Amino acid sequence: MATNNMKEFVDELRTDWQNLWRNRVEDKVRAEGIAKNDYSKLFIEQGTVIIATRDFKPIEFFDIVKEYLQCDTEKVIPPNSTIGGWGKFIRTNIRNQKPATRASRYALPKKTPKNGQQQKRGGRGWLSIKLK
C-alpha cells in the first residue's frame, strides 16, 4: 500500500471507530457498553462488549491498525500515548509537579521577641520614618 492509500484507510477505520463509540448501547444494569452494529473492519461483531467496569481490557484503535499495517504503522499514525512520546512525558513529569501556592511564595512571619511581647508596627521598630 502506498502511504496515501494507508492514510485514507486509517481515516476510514477512524470514522468507523468514532461511530462505534457514538452508537453503542449502554447497559446500565451490567455497567457495560455494547456494540450496536457490526463493524467488520474493526473486528467487532454486533453485541460485543466494548467497555465494562471490572476486569476488562478495552479495545484500542492502535492495536487494530497494527493488525492491518504490520510494518508501517509508525508512518501512518503516531504511537499510543500509553506507550510513550510527548503525551506520556507530560503526564509523568510535568503534570505531577505541585503548583506553587500563594502561601509558599511568602516568607514565614518573624517570631516574637523572647519576652513574648507583641512587636510594634509589624517588627519595624518604634520609629515611624517613611522612606522614599
Q: What proportion strand?
A: 5-15%
Helical fraction equals 25-40%
Largest sheet: 3 strands, antiparallel
Which series of helices and strands comes N to C?
A: HEEEHHHH
Averaged pLDDT, please? 75
Instruction: Strand order, main sheet: write it out.
Output: 1-2-3
Weakly predicted, low-confidence segments: none
How would you describe the overall organization of this protein?
With 132 residues, this protein is mainly α. The chain is 34% helix and 8% strand. A three-stranded antiparallel β-sheet has the order 1-2-3, with no helix packed on it. The longest helix is centred in the first third of the chain and has 20 residues. The chain is elongated and about 85 Å long. It starts with a helix and ends in a 27-residue tail after the last helix. The mean pLDDT is 75.
List the helices and strands and how they pair.
Elements: H1 3-22, E1 25-27, E2 32-34, E3 49-52, H2 61-68, H3 73-76, H4 86-94, H5 102-105
Antiparallel strand pairs: 1-2, 2-3
Protein traits:
132 residues; 5 helices; mainly alpha
